[in-house]
């Protein structure tokens, strides 16, 4: 590769990255999971793509977590109810990765806190 070719490739790469940065800055208020250059209307169900087996991606900042905590959502001046409403997430959908949800469900079934609640109330 000649120096002139290399310089042309570097300029085209820079231009492409700069265009992506401009698009991201213009669209910072609406964060969705579309690819750059995809001019289709944002999908209402994008929240489903943000929840995977091992992580959930915050639709506000794009960071990945095992679960979206109240503390993290407060950084975006939201609570879980407002976050769900903003992105159309059903109330029954946990804001956590599938593995974390399954683990909590398994623990609840083994601990059976609903049975222990009756015995705690009966003791004086």
UniProtKB/TrEMBL annotation:
Entry GO MF terms: DNA binding; zinc ion binding
Protein name in UniProt: MucR family transcriptional regulator
* Annotated GO biological process: regulation of DNA-templated transcription
Which family does the UniProt entry place this protein in? Belongs to the ros/MucR family.
């Amino acid at each position: 590769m000649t120096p002139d070719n290399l310089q042309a490739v570097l300029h085209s790469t820079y231009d492409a990255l700069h265009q992506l940065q401009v698009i991201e800055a213009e669209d910072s208020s609406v964060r969705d999971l579309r690819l750059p250059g995809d001019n289709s209307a944002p999908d209402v169900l994008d929240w489903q793509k943000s929840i995977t087996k091992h992580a959930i991606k915050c639709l506000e900042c794009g960071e990945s977590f095992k679960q979206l905590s109240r503390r993290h959502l407060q950084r975006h001046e939201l609570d879980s109810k407002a976050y769900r409403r903003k992105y159309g997430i059903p109330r029954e959908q946990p804001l956590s990765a599938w593995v974390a949800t399954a683990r909590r469900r398994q623990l609840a079934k083994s601990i059976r806190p609903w049975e222990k609640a009756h015995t705690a109330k009966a003791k004086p």
